[in-house]
Amino acid sequence: MSERGLYAITDSALLADGKLLPYVEAALLGGARWLQYRDKSGDAGKRLAEASQLAELCCAHDCQLLINDDLALADQLGVGLHLGQDDGSLREARQQLGPDALIGGTCHASLQLAERALEDGASYIAFGRFFNSVTKPGAPAATPELLRSARQQFSVPIIAIGGITLDNASTLLDAGTDYLAVINGLFGAPDAETVQHRARQFSQLIHAS
Ligand SMILES: Cc1ncc(COP(=O)(O)OP(=O)(O)O)c(N)n1
Ligand SMILES: Cc1nc(C(=O)O)sc1CCOP(=O)(O)O
Ligand SMILES: [Mg+2]
């Protein structure tokens, strides 16, 4: 598994109207290393069908798939899981998915939440939001200084999220982040070709840092 890279996250509103699969495939062709399926529709049948298709795509492109919010779906597909503060217990998720599963936790701007997430069995810790986010404008703000402190304190992969674009990502890489988690800065594009180009540019930026 790659130790640094682009962490592409889908959004059910942004990738509606048949965009999900072609846009995700473009991100994978551009070098995204992790993909999070983030669907807020509450439609269990649609979620299982889409996540199963993404699992096949990820397998073909050697990309790690994670499911947002939904332990049962992650378990059913045998893939990773991302949980926020209100999405259930990381400890129970670790017990259910086993020692090898990739499990991440939202830590907002708090090293204390990160410590707790790791005690509970998280494989990675995610901080944000770093910039204004179209997708989640209300998320609490975090700073690059926090990333620097986290880098000194923790050896697990550190993820940065929130308003990340090709123009502002370098500050976060300089501060020690391992994965850039991006929704709009990647998938908010007019076509799949642009998504692939952006994914390649993000990947190059990460590996040059
Ligand atoms: C990598 C990563 N970091 C943070 C989040 C946010 O999780 P959460 O706070 O549960 O918000 P939703 O994504 O569920 O709206 C994330 N999904 N991924
Ligand atoms: C889902 C999410 N969580 C955040 C947090 O700070 O925890 S920010 C965010 C939105 C990320 O999307 P975009 O790249 O479009 O800003
Ligand atoms: Mg959540």
Automatic annotation (TrEMBL):
Summarize where 2-[(2R,5Z)-2-carboxy-4-methylthiazol-5(2H)-ylidene]ethyl phosphate binds, as residue positions: S133, V134, T135, G163
Question: What does the record give as its pathway?
Answer: Cofactor biosynthesis; thiamine diphosphate biosynthesis; thiamine phosphate from 4-amino-2-methyl-5-diphosphomethylpyrimidine and 4-methyl-5-(2-phosphoethyl)-thiazole: step 1/1
Database matches in Gene3D superfamilies: Aldolase class I
Do you know which Pfam families this protein is assigned to?
TMP-TENI
Q: Which cofactor does it need?
A: Mg(2+)
UniProt keywords (A-Z) are: Magnesium, Metal-binding, Thiamine biosynthesis, Transferase
Broad class of enzyme this protein falls into: transferase
What residues does Mg(2+) bind to? D69, D87
Residues given in the record as 4-amino-2-methyl-5-(diphosphooxymethyl)pyrimidine binding sites: Q36, Y37, R38, D39, K40, N68, T106, K136
What GO MF annotations does this protein's record show?
magnesium ion binding; thiamine-phosphate diphosphorylase activity
Q: What is its EC number?
A: 2.5.1.3
- List, for all copies, the residue spans of the domain called Thiamine phosphate synthase/TenI: 6-185
InterPro entries xrefs: Aldolase_TIM, ThiamineP_synth_sf, ThiamineP_synth_TenI, TMP_synthase
Q: Which GO terms describe its biological process?
A: thiamine biosynthetic process; thiamine diphosphate biosynthetic process
**What NCBIfam families does the database record attribute to this sequence?**
thiE (TIGR00693)
Record-stated family: Belongs to the thiamine-phosphate synthase family.
Please report the name of this protein according to its UniProt entry.
Thiamine-phosphate synthase
Q: Which organism is it from?
A: Halopseudomonas oceani
The gene is thiE
